[in-house]
Amino acid sequence: MRIGLITDTHLPSLVRSLDELGPQVADCLRGVDLILHGGDVTAPSVLDWCSQFADVLVAEGNNDLFDHPSMARKQLLDIEGWRIGMAHELRPESRPIAELLRSSLDGEAVDILIGGDTHVERLEFRESTLLINSGSPILPHHLSTRLGCMGILDITRARVRAEIVVLGESPGLRNPCTPLTYELPAHALTRNGGGSAEAAR
After folding, report:
1. Is residue 201 included in any domain, yes or no?
2. Is residue 170 part of a domain?
């Protein structure tokens, strides 16, 4: 399964639609089977836009002052034998994974933990958990409106490959994001039999 990761869209702002940034956001989502939005959507129209590509699940952000059937404080799902959890705020993300799980997912154990809120991309494997923040496609690193980054998860029963996708440059505005990739075989997880994972960058 191919999953698109997006968070912190904060629309409308200087632009009213992600299309106004250019074709890059749509190109990243085209062909995915599911979209996970890490919160701070701020307008239901963003979810309508995302749904043209695939079904959407959302972790409610602190700026999401609306109701939507796809949105909840936390999202938990099982895909190809992998347990995925998503919540908007994980900060500080440097805390032990057990603390992150207690504060965001009521202690639920997961293989993959997805968050948002910081607008800064993060991809790392520690304490038997793959931690992903796909950053913001529109306000990267809390800079002004410009192209930022998103994420892609390719999941099979045997492995998961995570990627932070830098969307390109907006005219005259630097994109501060860093492309990252990580591939994790199922046997690397302690709860699946122990071992370690190697990062590929």
Report:
1. no
2. yes
The answer to whether the CB of 133 falls within 8 A of the CB of 148 is: no
Confidence of residue 196 (pLDDT cuts 50, 70, 90): very low
- Distance from first CA to last CA of the chain, Å, rounded? 22
Distance of CA 92 to the CA centre of its chain: 16
Angle (CA) 184 119 30, round 5°: 60
Look at the chain and report how many structural domains it folds into. 1
Can you give the pTM of this predicted structure? 0.93
Supply the CATH number for residue 188's domain. 3.60.21.10
Please write the tens of the pLDDT for every residue from 150-190. 999 999 999 999 999 999 999 999 999 999 999 999 887 75
pLDDT at 12 > cutoff 90: no
Structural domain of 27 = 2-192
104 part of a folded domain: yes
Sign of the C-alpha dihedral computed for residues 40, 73, 180 and 119 taken in this order? positive
pLDDT of residue 72: 98
Residue 171 vs residues 11, 23, 35: alpha-carbon distances, Å: 20, 14, 28
Q: Is residue 88 in some structural domain?
A: yes
Report pLDDT digits (tens) over 90-149: 999 999 999 999 999 999 999 999 999 999 999 999 999 999 999 999 999 999 999 999
DSSP string, 99-149: HHHHHHHTT---SEEEE-SS-S-EEEEETTEEEEE---SSSGGG-SS---E
